[in-house]
Write a structure and sequence with these properties.
CATH architecture of chain B: Roll
Number of domains of chain B: 1
Helix content of chain B: 25-40%
Order of helices and strands of chain A: EHEEEEHEEEHEEH
CATH architecture of chain A: Alpha-Beta Complex
Shape of chain A: globular
Radius of gyration of chain A: 16 Å
CATH topology of chain B: Ubiquitin-like (UB roll)
Strand content of chain B: 15-25%
Strand content of chain A: 35-45%
Number of domains of chain A: 1
Largest sheet of chain B: 5 strands, mixed
Shape of chain B: globular
Strand order of the largest sheet of chain A: 1-6-8-2
Oligomer: heterotetramer
Helix content of chain A: 25-40%
Number of strands of chain B: 5
Radius of gyration of chain B: 12 Å
Distance between the termini of chain B: 30 Å
């Protein structure tokens, strides 16, 4: 399931809803991304996430389908917020559930790595010097490349 | 053809979207970008380094040789930074 | 932090408590293990977790310290239950928080893999044929071996 | 010396713990296990395959050559299966 929303989410409630009643699940992996106070060495006081409505949902759907092709998942969830966010706010949630823990752990890492280089979101950080659009990071490309299949 | 701009491309272009009517020579992403750069200094500057510009045609990532036509929605944006 | 307890835990509340007010955190990875309905091909209806009080806490402490030596973590948590558990019940929770997502994701996988081969817990599964002590799995040893440093 | 048994070792031994007073020749884990196996068929059978027996001395994993003495807490258990 994918959700693109302005409002916050409740991690525990989302995990509970995802696995509700499914006793084939033996492991649930999750990742929560939050707004941190530093961008490199620069203090950050908040950020705004812009996205491309329509394409965002398509890309997240595609990414989730890819994870389900690669691992035997019982359930999966991606929630990504947009709009203005404060320090410490939750940005993104990825949850994967499987009979076996390695499938859950690996697919969760895959989803967040893949999403970071594919889903059309852009961060604008607030610093003392003003607002700046964040540059894409080579390390994110490298992390996503680990999962590439030729 | 509907053009959409995001992130710093939107800021540089001074708009989030516009309707354009490219000439017949514009048949793919490459020729569209070339035509846009010829529309004035703002376009030329915003699109000066194509290594930091991504293109989606009808909400799908598109390469330079992907075809475009007048009914398409074409989005130009920097590499994504979500997650 | 480590907790060895009989009672259930609230994943969302535990994560919130762990990251409370720490805006140096950019990513939180978690893993929840649950009681599943199959052991191989055998239907399971419940289980009992036995442990070695005292040694359990020492081993979990040691495992957590090792994760903190290997990755730059802002916070970490291991909760492991013991006693009788029903199908679908939560067994274990691992949470790791770091400035960067790779550190959080990797250390979370490390902790659950390592714990499975080190922490003195034993599962007794309830099946139609009666109660049976679960055998250690080679795949768990292999998963833990990935993290071995010589 | 206090011995603790867990999981199927507890079941086979028919008890969770016992106090023992090994002779002077028992100086390490290996000689302790050997002495225990000589105490009767139940011990001999439970400890017949040492590849599935783990030993902790004073709540730390111990190898066969680890020393033991009369004040120690020695636990015998199968490979762990938590998580």
């Amino acid at each position: 399931m994918i959700k693109v929303q302005k409002q916050d989410f409740d991690v525990g409630a989302e995990i509970d809803a995802l696995r509700a009643g499914n006793t084939a699940i033996g492991g649930i992996a999750s990742f929560v991304g939050t707004v941190r106070d530093l961008a490199g060495d620069t203090p950050v006081t908040g950020m705004t996430l812009e996205h491309y409505p329509g394409m965002t949902e398509r890309e997240l759907d595609r990414i989730e389908q890819e994870a389900n092709r690669r691992w035997p998942l019982e359930a999966s969830l991606i929630i990504h917020r947009y709009g203005r966010l404060e320090l410490g706010d939750r940005i993104v949630l990825v949850v994967t559930a499987s009979a076996h823990r390695q499938a859950a752990l690996e697919s969760c890492a895959f989803l967040i790595d893949w999403l970071k280089t594919k889903a059309p979101f852009w961060k604008k950080e607030e610093t003392r010097g003003g607002e700046t659009w964040v540059d894409a990071r080579d390390s994110d490309d490298a992390a996503a490349a680990r999962w590439r299949k030729d | 053809m509907r053009l959409l701009y995001f992130a710093w491309l939107k800021t540089k272009m001074g708009r989030a979207e516009e309707e354009v009517d490219p000439p017949a020579e514009v048949t793919d992403v490459a020729s569209l970008l070339e035509w846009l750069r010829g529309r004035g200094p703002v376009y030329a500057e915003a699109l000066s380094d194509l290594s930091v510009v991504r293109v989606a045609v009808n909400q799908e990532y598109a390469r330079l040789d992907a075809p475009v036509n007048k009914d398409d929605e074409v989005a130009l944006f920097p590499p994504v930074t979500g997650g």
